[in-house]
Amino acid sequence: MDDQPKEGGEGDKKIVHTYALVKHSDMSDDIKNEAIEIVTTACEKYAQNYELAAKTVKEAMDKKFGSFWHCCVGEGFGFEVSYETRNILYLFFGGNLAIVLWKCS
Length: 105
Known about the structure:
2 helices, globular
């Protein structure tokens, strides 16, 4: 009889994504890829300061693709936003860090 749980078993593995995992996007591929690169860079640079990461993403998107971009970075939040068609990106980075990026004018 072996009642002890086995260490290192398949059930114990936790997947941590080290890349951006896009959950929803209706952006064109070129804008989406550029936005993912901006988000990834900001989240790596400001891993401990979500507010500064969101501000960095917003400012970079405003400069590159025009005004009225908004960004939320954090863990454990819900959202409902109004946005311009083909201008929203919802993704996860580093496992449980969620990022919502959208344009609304």
